[in-house]
Amino acid sequence: MKVLYVYAHPEPKSFNGALKDTALAVLQEKGHEVKLSDLYAMKFHPVLKASDFPERKNLEIFNPFFEAIKAVKTGAFSPDIKEEMEKVKWADLLIFQFPIYFTFMPAIMKGWIDRVLAPGFGFNPVTNSAYDTGLFKGKSAMIVTTTGAPKSMYSEEGAHGDLNRHLESITHCIFEYMGMKVLPSYIIYEVSSMSREKGTEELEKYRQRILDPRFGR
């Protein structure tokens, strides 16, 4: 299996960093091909801008939707976007790992999605290519995420509500919208107050999740 691991955390020595390193090691141990997009390390620019389209059709008014639709046909994206698009094309499974910020993904991860998973690439409303006819049909995607809050806060009765419901704006409105099969999200709670022993235990649990023969299916 070909796996693209899209990772967003600013500190390499964090628990998230260890989680990512564990995943990469185990995936390779299982014989999978793996490519990493470490967004902070890459200094990935998260802001969609006119210069993303070097062959713009309309120089007077910037319409990113229509520029993207046209650019997909010609490949006329900025080099950083083209490089990430090639990784996505190559991958069978996309894993997105990030910490929860205000019940959502960090801005740098959202920027990667906005710029890379462009109209005409993973979906195309003009041709009604979405959901069952999404352009990434045959690929799978999953979220790996951490929170500082306890699980009780993200329960149905908790202050924030069920975290999986918050994640549906990603799993349903992005992944499924583009035709991808959504795998169950992997969530680790209370990372901010986690002891070293608990952290080691959680890393082993994640390792075992990836080693499960059903992983990625």
TrEMBL record:
Keyword Oxidoreductase annotated: yes
Record domain Flavodoxin-like fold: where: 1-209
Family membership noted in the UniProt record: Belongs to the NAD(P)H dehydrogenase (quinone) family.
Name of protein: Quinone oxidoreductase
GO cellular component entries: cytosol
Organism name: Methanosarcina spelaei
Gene Ontology terms, MF aspect: NAD(P)H dehydrogenase (quinone) activity
Keyword annotations from UniProtKB, A to Z: Oxidoreductase
Residues that span the membrane, as ranges: none
InterPro entries from the UniProt entry: Flavodoxin_fold (IPR003680), Flavoprotein-like_sf (IPR029039), NAD(P)H_dehydrogenase_qn (IPR051545)
